[in-house]
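S1.2 Input.
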Amino acid sequence: MATTADFKNGLCISYNSKPCCITYFQHVKPGKGPAFVKVKMRNLENGRILENTFSAGEKIDIISVERRPYQFLYKDESGYHFMHNETFEQIDLDDDMIDNQDLMKEGQYVEMMFLADEERVLTCELPPFVELTVTYTEPAVKGDTASTSALKAATLETGAEIMVPLFISQDEKIKVDTRTRTYAERVK
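S1.3 Output.
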């Protein structure tokens, strides 16, 4: 059993019987009254951000989570299928467990977070950047715009659609930020 003095960013705790990860905390000592800790945490089951205030010294339950590397194999009617890189154990997940699943192609490496006590998958995260090929985009016409930051729609090899700069053409390989679903740079 731990207390609020053990708080740090990234610490996983059980809050209202739900697994949560602390993203921000601040210890407050007002001039009048007892000290307290303001906390922002992300619910690991649904991704919602929760805010709470704990009394200083309040007891909390720390939970054990493990991060494991997996490789995306394929998708079918039963969901997305993954294989552990070392043990070759295979698991399948539903659509709602994976953020930005339309940016994931076969063979893509992901990182899954497991609740260690129950061996239950909490999250499946893509790497921060993925390299994908543009399968379709409208050709840019010279003099189309006066601004330098103009964007156009592009369809990627996985079927995802994102906005890219006008100079990107079909069959080019680009790097996409999976956290914001934005174009990052051209791959040479």
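S1.4 Remarks. The longest strand covers residues 65-76.
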